[in-house]
Amino acid sequence: MGFFTAARQGRKDDAELGKGLWRRAHDRFHRGLDRYHQVLEGVEDEQLYAELVEVANELAGLLERVRVVCVEAQRRSPSEGLDIPGALAGVHRSLSKAGNSLATTAEAAAMLRLAVGPVPVGAASVRRRAESVFEQVADAERRLAEDAAAGGQPESRSG
Fold first, then answer.
1. Vertex 27: Cα angle to 22 and 32 (nearest 5)
2. If we measure between CA atoms, which residue out of 133, 155, 129, 157 comes closest to residue 62?
3. pTM metric for this prediction
4. Who wins on pLDDT, 142 or 115?
5. Which of 47, 44, 59 is nearest to 103 (CA)?
């Protein structure tokens, strides 16, 4: 990403995600994806690499979903600091867990990369950890929808 492209994206992120809690949740998830992709660079076993790339592609598909949740949460409860809004505390908790789970998924992939010899179960441990990331993102989406149904502001879909 060039300097001007990065600057434009930064301004867009500031406008859509703010500079507080929701921006941090989004950026943490994004960094976790970057770290996972960095781990892939050192995988020498072709079969394991193919399995890990498949997981990487599935996880990358979550980034837009995380962004939608964070943008909507910022619209409903704007955040410029680190205070967690009560009504959306569950949404934040799920996003935080998703970020943590993504980090442990990258860690599991790194451990496989460092394994000596063939890995008998392939990327099964990475796949298990990735499943929790999917569940936690879905939980954040569900909690956001429940908040809207319970009298929170209606969801807006843009894009």
1. 130
2. 133
3. 0.86
4. 142
5. 59
